[in-house]
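Predict structure. Chain length: 223.
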Amino acid sequence: MKKLPKIIIHNSISLDGSLIGFMPDMVLHYRIAGEYKPDIHLIGSTTIISGIEMFGEEVPAEEPGDFRKPERASALPFWVIIDTGGKLKGLLHTCRRFEFCRDVIILVSESTPKDYFSHLVERNYDFITTGKKNVDISLALSVLAEKYRINTVLTDTGMILGNLLINLNLVSEISLLIHPLIIGESAYRIFDNVENQLSLKLLKREEFGNGLVWLVYELQTTA
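Prediction complete.
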């Protein structure tokens, strides 16, 4: 099997493990994410849609420049988005315009609507097709590593994608920025869909003056 890149899950959570119900320290969150110097940010299409809805702004119309690959520094990370259903048709240019994104690469499967493939080709988006119904993430990552010389992948998009990567034994490290509050019954806990017990090794612990604690763990074995 071809070598896979290092995958890091990075999330801001409450003390009881919730991903929602509070306003994270986003400046610190992204400062930490940047320290990893990832080659790509791996994102689910639902996260992109949620982000657009969160800001509540009207999606701007596409312009001629949106059909061209941006010319940006090679040190910037690619945004690699899993979008089997073509949910981001007509929305991808909002991602491509982000100045800290080198460009967007889409992961699709054989079941992806044919018109979405045409949509991507017309706009010069790179895409990788793996799997019949769902994206074969392991294979897609190996293709990314070889084609784009990817060594480090960071994902901070929440529970579903993160838990899937853990269940596939693809994750190397888990980075958690813990906020000093408890959400309680309405908590949306980060590891609720992890299938097996995990053994972890603490790699780093750093405290911040506002009560936040940053913990980094290395995954050892899956029981």
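Summary: Residues 95 and 104 are 7 Å apart (CA to CA).
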